[in-house]
User: Fold these one by one.
Assistant:
Number 1:
Amino acid sequence: MDAERHGAREGLSASEERIRLILDSALDALVTIDHTGTITGWSRQAETLFGWSAGEALGRLLSETIIPERYRAEHTQGLERYLATGEGPLLNRRIEVSALRRDQNEFPMELAITPIRSGNRVSFSAFVRDLTERKRAEAALRESQELLEGIVNSSDDAIISKTLGGIITSWNPGAERLFGYTAQQAIGRPMLMIFPPERRGEEPGILARIGRGERVDHFETVRVRADGTRVDISATISPLRDADGRIIGASKIARDITERKAHERKLQAQLARLHLLEQITRAIGERQDLHSIFRVAIHSLEEHLPIDFGCIALHEVAGQPLEIACVGTRSQALAPELALAEHAQIGSDENGLGRCLRGELVYEPDISASPFPLPGRLARGGLRALAIAPLSVENKVFGVMIAARREPASFASADCEFLRQLSEHLALAARQVRLHSALQQAYEDLRQSQQTVMQQERLRALGQMASGIAHDINNALSPASIYAQSLLERDETLSESARESLRVIHRAIDDVGQTVSRMRMFYSQREPQLALAPLDLNDLLQQVARLTRARWSDIPQERGIVIDLKTDLAPDLPRIMGAESEIRDALTNLVLNAVDAMPEGGTLTLRTGVSNGADREASAAPQVQVEIRDTGVGMTEAVRSRCLEPFFTTKGERGTGLGLAMVYGMVQRHSAELEVESELGAGTTMRVIFPTAWLRDVQQP
Ligand SMILES: Nc1ncnc2c1ncn2[C@@H]1O[C@H](COP(=O)(O)OP(=O)(O)OP(=O)(O)O)[C@@H](O)[C@H]1O
Ligand SMILES: [Mg+2]
């Protein structure tokens, strides 16, 4: 029996031992107590956990061993209540409590208490797990989450997350500031709400890239704020993954780059303007006339600045109204409506235009209510913003460049600066053109006076030759004339037929003599004894008309041709000093040439007049001019340039070519001037201009 009991006890302790071994190897500590709260079981893990060895712990009150003092009463009450009522709210579930180690340090533990009834005795077992590590890890996680949240919340950048379907899932204060929606308004709505309509197409592309696990870096685009305004942003969008690495959405960090973009745009605009300026200056450099320079400049402004209306107005003399010199091609449609077409006049005012004419660039953001004439006219054409730039050379304003736009206040300061620079270039180009044309004029004048000198020189040489020939012919003719004359007078033996031959010879010699004397008249120095007398050119001209009547009236009439004579004689014509017969002969020659030039008839005008000579000083003595004008065949340029030369004629046998040479001789001897104006097929005007200063000198006592 003893042996049996012993055997049974042994069997029992063997199974206890096995359980103990299992429990000792369990992860959790196992503690058991009896109904008085005394420790009855203490596993190896309990030893390590609480610092009490099993030997020390067994038999101690649990509450005094591992329960912090402040919970001990509660523990005892709970135990008593369970024993009395069988109720224990903390039993059979996992609870977290604080426990004491032997060294009195508290630590968090998790435990599950199970009551064990055997007969009417109750004991309790509890599995205990140290939570210190887990709590620490949890705290660390919480901390790092809070840190992250803090960073996200305090970021200046917008940080947003969205699902792969594009629905917003988070929205930080930076996003609230940037886009103007609160987190509440944004979360749950589609990301597309901040896309401008023309950029909606970007979203599928972005989502596709995110779906492939790609990141979109520094993507520059435009979004719309809650108030409808646009904002330039740079966004970096990355895939968001769950714990298993699956992509579940995207995070987006966006930054406002409006300012940078504005800077970039400003820089771009500046570069574009610089380019335009260069283009315009190159184009105007290739041109030499002012009008096309202005046209190119205004046209470029219309096209590229751009402007709605542009023109250039100039004035010769400060204080006088400006005249529109050029209106832009596109502005022309508007010009008549504004009364600002080319050649229209603009009076200066006491306002912008006046200031501009004093050299200032003037900008008026809105001219709609301007009472002044120029802005008033522009405003009536629907223009609002006006810029006027002066065109000046050496501090003298000679014109203005006018640029206007329909949009009020639409010229930025950079635009104004551009207009100012352009106006400087234009003024320089205008000055260049003026210098160039002045130079050309000077060359032309020089060429003409050179030609005149050469012609005079040629005429002088020809004249000298002619009078030399005349002298020799005269010498050779005089014996022939004398002998022919004396034979006719003295020799009575001559037959009638010989006498007739001699008469013919004598007449021929006479004719040659006449020609020779005309030749000599062409180049004879004015001899001192040349009878100069005060002459009335009106009288003289009337005499010439009478003397030549047969040629311009009778003979043509016989042939059925009509030449009208018009006389236009200035009353009170000052008298000139001259040799009457010479002038009469010369005028006769001119009238005969005019008649010759009108074989089909026409009008012959004889006119006298007084002129002060445009290029002479006002104080100079007046000049008297005689004009013989015909409506005949006219002269070619070649004939006109040679008509004064002796022996130059286009009349063949009928002309000697000495008429105008003689006229020229007379003109020279009277210090007069001869002007030849002729147009082929339209007629010729020969004008002799006599000075009267002579007369004053001569007549003064
Ligand atoms: N009024 C004119 N209309 C057209 N041609 C003219 C006129 N006057 C002169 N000429 C041209 O000038 C040339 C020279 O004129 P000029 O008077 O010296 O000589 P001419 O008339 O030909 O001969 P002459 O006068 O000796 O009879 C003329 O042959 C003619 O071609
Ligand atoms: Mg003639």
Number 2:
Amino acid sequence: MGPRMAFMGLGEMGKAMTRNLHRDGNLTSPLTLWNRTKSTADAHGADLGDCKVAETVQEAVENSDIVWSCLQDQSAVEQVFDSILAANVDITGKLFVDSSTIAPEWSNATAKRVIEAGGEFVSMPVMGEPVVAAAKKLICIPSGKPESVDRIRPYLEGV
Ligand SMILES: NC(=O)c1ccc[n+]([C@@H]2O[C@H](COP(=O)([O-])OP(=O)(O)OC[C@H]3O[C@@H](n4cnc5c(N)ncnc54)[C@H](OP(=O)(O)O)[C@@H]3O)[C@@H](O)[C@H]2O)c1
């Protein structure tokens, strides 16, 4: 049984990335989707099929082993991680991968908070527009502990 995966942030990039993950990620359980505006997640989930839409960000995290995010900016990342870390969700062993474009200092700060709470963190900015993502040609730049980066590798090449 492979890891349970959740994706947070279904903007133009998140939609393209989750379409690839859903089609080519060899997921062994339904992909969980979370978006601030839930109707977007509902519509995208219905479009992809065989997905779970989480009501809350905490629910998305609770039911997943890998939580991938692609949010608008630093403030969005801060708000989402604040609400995860403030909630009583046990994140021990869970891997967070963030593909939002934010300053390295903020990625480091978020990584520190996640790791202190028992989780793992990979910062993974992506280069390329949504059309490039749709063509499976995004350049992904993962950084973090080698064992954490290894956990996301199966979802990069060919996906
Ligand atoms: N588009 C590109 O060409 C491109 C290329 C490389 C990297 N990126 C980076 O990828 C990230 C996403 O880009 P995108 O093009 O997908 O942006 P987008 O279409 O504008 O989508 C932004 C996403 O962030 C969510 N969001 C915004 N503020 C939030 C908050 N305070 N709390 C929770 N969620 C929030 C939005 O949710 P709602 O639906 O509720 O608004 C939406 O899901 C950005 O960091 C961008 O710099 C984009």
